[in-house]
Amino acid sequence: MTKDAPKPEDDDDIQLFHEAVKGARPVAPKRILHSPKKPKPIPRQLIRDEQQALIDSLSDHYIPAYELESGEELLYLRDGQSPLVLSKLRRGHWVVQAHIDLHGLISDEARLYVSEFIAGCKKRGLRCVRIVHGKGLGSRNKEPVLKHKLRNWLMQKDEVIAYAQARQTDGGSGAVIVLLKA
Question: Roughly what angle, to the nearest 10 degrees, separates helices 44-56 and 107-124?
Fold first, then answer.
């Protein structure tokens, strides 16, 4: 007998198996097919409205009634706040929890970016943030365009309690530390 030829015992086993399953029918699988969940609708108009409100909320032509400027250093304290708040902010009392960099942005882009950043910080409950505006060395007249605009934008935001020029280690005259309402 060759290796490949079935042994007589195997034939008996096969025959027994066929007799045992002679009347059997295959069982149809009972699968439940779940339809995929539909994604939640995107409120596109609401998103557009919120973005437009952010853009409209800041003006380049705002003239503040009260600001504390000392030369080129940026300082601001909202009415009704203790001067100690500004003093603590200048000394680095609060930990910077988030920051953005406006380098390379044009004025309109920077305004929108600042608005969205502050709104996001408010939603996340952040209190102290840094905004890097640059020193203006790359601008046409070597003057800090965004620095002066940022000053006005921040004063218009109700969420801003105070801001001060960053310490040298945090960006110096090219950045501002902002204290937001809790």
Answer: 110
Residues 141-169 have a mean pLDDT of 85
- The predicted model scores a pTM of 0.61
Q: Name the nearest CA neighbour of 111 among 100, 124, 122, 95.
A: 100
Q: What residues are paired with 48 via a beta bridge?
A: none
Pairing of strands 175-180, 75-77: unpaired
* Most distant CA atoms of the chain, gap in Å: 110
Tell me the three-class secondary structure of 63-99, residue by residue.
CCCCCCCECCECEEECCCCCHHHHHHHHHCCCCCCEE
d(CA 161, CA 52): 24
pLDDT tens per residue across span 120-152: 999 999 999 999 988 877 666 667 788 888 888
pLDDT per residue over 68-97, tens digit each? 444 557 788 888 888 888 888 888 888 999
Phi, psi at residue 78, to the nearest 5°?
-65, 145
Tokens standing for 81? 């706040």
- Dihedral (CA of 70, 59, 83, 96) sign: negative
